[in-house]
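Form 7-S
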Amino acid sequence: MTGIDPEADIEFHSADGHVTVRIPLAGPVTSDWLGCYQKLARATEVPAQAQAHRDRAWIVVRLPASSDDGEVVAALDAARALIAEADAAERSPATAKAEAVVRQWWAGRRGSAPGGPVFRTKVAGTVIGAEKRWPMAVTLVLAMALLLLLPPRFSLGPSWIVPAVEALLLAAIVVSDQGRFDGRSAVGRALSLALVAVLVAEAAGVTTRLVIDLIEGGPETNSASDLLGVGFAVWLYTIIAFAFLYWVLAGRGFQARLLALPEFPDLAFPEQLNPGLAPPGWRPEFFDYLYLGFTNATAFSPTDVMPLARWAKLTMTVQAVGSIAILGLVIARAINILK
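Output:
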């Protein structure tokens, strides 16, 4: 297996406002391994490359000199973790899978993962690529459409205000999220939190408006079809809002998960609890959090994804209570109207 050479020194070079670090490797390094590492680094957008000269090989990481401590550590951890991925890519799927299980077991026994376990990297070999943004964008567009379909009285101002704000935040996130290790990562994080705040606040607003109408009587409560349509739109919007909340908050956010999953996840997915269910390097993406939001809203409790962090438990509880209120009151009112 290839690994970092503990006997050799790390080399530093500074130029053009960047710091280049050369980390020596030990173990067999073939041309195929070098090519595999390069492909993984490009796919994961990790600022690293593998180099070899005669009987020596290095991992070269290039970072802006302005990078903070966290960004430097995250980049080095990601570059180191790709070493194991490149090793796994040269082996058969069965061998790679067995090695991934052993690494996870060893990391759990030692309380840390100094060798960069496979499950904490951004990709799993050549099987899983960088997380796509189109599922998030399509879902957010659906949320905007739902708000425009709701009666005007469900908005404090013009019905297009909130969808317009969400569209602007989406565009800003796409522009800022370039997968680089500089100040824009903090900007992307702030924009993502702002988008979640808008979604959750609007979800609370439309849910409150619907519940008040159901209790006191509103225009849509006189027709079963109108009530079911409005109720379904509000319910679906809340699912989307909570899906974004889980996606942005879990594991310090999607940008942090691009580099490495936390050692102790906030939300435990089946693929993390049982590594044999997924390829090495699997990590949750937006669709997984959307599925979590849907199942929690229909089952009113955790299904296959377990909340481990306290904020996750509280958030899932709030979503379950809101979903019970929406579905229970809407269905009961619709049945009374039909009678």
